[in-house]
Amino acid sequence: xxxxxxxxxxxxxxxxxxxxxxxxxxxxxxxxxxxxxxxxxxxxxxxxxxxxxxxxxxxxxxxxxxxxxxxxxxxxxxxxxxxxxxxxxxxxxxxxxxxxxxxxxxxxxxxxxxxxxxxxxxxxxxxxxxxxxxxxxxxxxxxxxxxxxxxxxxxxxxxxxxxxxxxxxxxxxxxxxxxxxxxxx
Length: 185
Known about the structure:
Elements: E1 3-10, E2 14-17, H1 23-26, H2 31-42, E3 45-51, H3 52-62, H4 69-75, E4 80-83, E5 96-99, H5 103-113, E6 119-124, H6 126-134, E7 140-146, E8 153-155, E9 166-174, E10 177-184
GO biological process, one term: riboflavin biosynthetic process
Protein name: Dihydrofolate reductase
GO molecular function, one term: 5-amino-6-(5-phosphoribosylamino)uracil reductase activity
């Protein structure tokens, strides 16, 4: 079991544009081949964790509230933990739990409810992944670099993390994308 932050980033380090949109990512030619490869990663994931901005963008863009079956089509029946200080709507009948609190306080419940022998995927955003890093719980970062530059947006990791805390374990090309896998030290 590993806790993994797997995200796509622009070449200048943004995971979403200034409006929290990921449309720039889906507009990249060849993103379908990367999506197929992503299915291999998702097959090993038992639990999803995300921040409220990521979650709300997904709800709106993929229309999960009016059609909850779409949630299952994308994420299956994986338990999902959404960190937010607000009450948020959830897709009817889906295992989505909105929690308010520090990662360190909620993490034991996430671990206890994670299906055996499966990974935990931090879907986003960068600040939430940084909070997992701060607690020492983040095991791996998979950063897929996309051939796009944005003039502003949400950073992949709004933390200063020096090279003595990360080790590159794999770099590979997936179509137009470059996937970099880092282990935390």
